[in-house]
Request: fold
Amino acid sequence: MSYTYDLSTSIGKVRLNIGDTNSACVVFTNEEIQAILTSSEDDVNQATGKLLLIEANDAARLAKVKKAGNYSEDTTKIAQQLRENAKAWFERGIIPWDETMEQTFGSVETPFDSPGEKDFIRREDLRG
Reply:
């Protein structure tokens, strides 16, 4: 698993677009980015959108609201912001967003509103 940040490469351009530029805190490996680039027909904008959707899924999974005295933290909106950012990158890409991509990467338009909603849907799926 490797990490390089070279703006003369497609991998480096994708890293810049998604903010994965700190070698001390790597989000995606070169191999992961290259796999997404390959599935995106080497379209940097499309790959950027796909990787942002992957980050959005992680953010939705980890979203929480914390309160302690005067301190509060709400990370439940991060996933939606990442999805909106991904949509903008998809619109710049050469490959149009379609149903196949939506089935693979999830809906940009109608993400889960909260982690609780996602858990509810999973439980409903398990019940059959």
About this structure: Residues 44-62 form the longest helix (19 residues).
